[in-house]
Each structure stands twice: as structure tokens, then as C-alpha cells.
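[#protein-structures] MJ: dropping Histidine ammonia-lyase here for a structure pass
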Amino acid sequence: MRCPAGIEPLQLREKEGLALINGTDGMLGQLCLAITDLRAAAKVADIATAMSVEGLNGSLVPFAEDLQALRPHPGQAAAAENIRTVAAGSGILDAAHAEFTQNHVQDAYSVRCAPQVAGGFRDTIEHATTVADRELAAAVDNPVVTKDGRVVSNGNFHGAPVAYVLDFLAVVTADLASISERRTDRFLDPARNRGLNPFLAFDPGVDSGHMIAQYTQAGIVAELKRLAVPSSADSIPSSAMQEDHVSLGWSGARKLRRAVDGLQRVLAIEILTAARAIDMREVDASGGAAAALATLREKVEGPGSDRFLAPEIEETVQLVKAGAFVDAVEKAVGELK
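AK: finished. C-alpha cells for Histidine ammonia-lyase:
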């Protein structure tokens, strides 16, 4: 009997049922899904950073190619190039350059060091990809049937290699979200946002602006830090001490899935906030930021008096998850790294 998609049902043979439900294979599937989502999130983070640099009247100088080459991590170079590409030709930064040079030495870490953090995030994804590629080529049966017909007990089913990178990805996911939240917080403080209203409020003293949006970010980041606690460092013996050391990689996979969702939400709030700041500057943004802003404004209104923020945050989250910001920016400025 054929399924509606025309796919012949798989007739399982010996050991194939176990292969489909084995814990290591499940962890690997979750790892592959996370890698795909986190690669997309890396581009979103660079877009958000570029928009924040513009919205905060910052400087692109620290992202210069020659400065980044002094510390030759490939992920760092890619992140910095993306930020430069998205923010290129910004009227906001051109207008603010003289004031920045006269009154400021440098931007805060959360802005100036963005490529270093996003770069480490990217390089960790590549390490995880290497592990996933090896695991996809692996046989994790126990016992295993060798080419010469031997049936041999072995330990290839142990999930340690996959569990480690699942935990590693949860750590860098939490940190990328953390630096994003710090940039968002700068927009809300008139002592640090370089001429914008407190909390980006339309009517300061009456409206709360994006105060609650940053609260939301802070709560998510706090949860991400808890999810970054490694599962693979734990082990509880079972099966009368025969299975006396396990990877607990499924726990790592489950918490990483929650972490991916949290990161997407934190980045969405940074974009939502940076977009409001860019609109309030009332100066032409870069081509990349303008493309992201136009995409957002199809779903979310521009600055105005206080509104219920939850629906606007959710609309922005869905744009992040659908890849809409990346698609729009790449159409405007070319493919990002």
C-alpha cells in the first residue's frame, strides 16, 4: 500500500527497528536540526548587530577587515564582514561620525566585540558539524555485524561525542543571546543610547516604550543560562550496573531545542528594538537595515504610543524563524557569510 506521497513503506529487517529508535540516532537527528537552525540564527545575529550599531550611532571601525585579521578565527571574520555589509552606506552613521569622533573613544563591548562572540558561536557550529558528519557515517549497533560476518559487542552506541557538542551548542547559544540582550538594553537608557528617548518611548514619562520587551529578553536569557548547564557531565547507572555510564545526550538534545527557540526570540526583540530606534533617528539607514526594516513594517507598525507588545514580538519571531529577514537583506546587499 502506498502512502499519499507515493513513498513505498519501509519493510524493516533485522536490527533496523533498533537503528531507528536508538538513542544515539535520535540525538544525531536533533543535532542536525539544531545546526541548521543555528546557522540561520548566526546570520540573523549579524543583521541585528548591524541594525543596533546604526540605531545606537555607533562605529563600524572595529569591524574593519585588517583589524579582524589580527585574530584569524574564521567565524569572527565572517561575522564582521556580514556586519560591514549590512551597515554599509548608512546615512545614520555618516551623520553621527563627527559627533562620535569628538565625544566617544569606543563603543561598549556588546557592540564592539560582537564579531568575537558571534564568531565563536559560528566556529562552534562548525565543530558540531564535523561531529555530526562523522556520526552520519558511523555504525552504532551493538552487537555489530562486520563485513566478514562476525557478530561483535562494542561500545559505539555510547552517545558521548554527540552529547558533548549538544551541550557545547547550548553554551554558545546562551552567550549569543546574552550579548544581544545587552545591546537591546543600551537602547533604553538615555545615558547610553546617544540622544534617543528613554526606553524609546513615544511620550517619555507617560509611555513605557520597549521596557517590557527587554524584560522579556532578560527572562529568556536567564533561562538559556540554566539550559547551558551540561547534561553530559551527569550519569546515573542502570541495568544492574551493566549500563553504569551513559551520556544523557537526549537530555542535552531536548534542552538545546528549547535554547534554539529562546535565541530566536531574543534576536527578534533586538531587531524589533533596533528598528524602532532607527525610525526615531529619522535619517536614512543602510541598504541592509532598510531591507530588514521594510520586512518588519509589513507586520509591525512603526513608533507610536504604547501598544500591547506581545503580538508584535511574536510576529517578529515568526519572521526570524521563516528566514524573512535574511532573505530580504541578502536580496538588498548580496549573500551573507
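MJ: nice. The first strand starts at residue 144 and ends at 145.
AK: one more thing. The CA atoms of residues 110 and 182 lie 6 Å apart.
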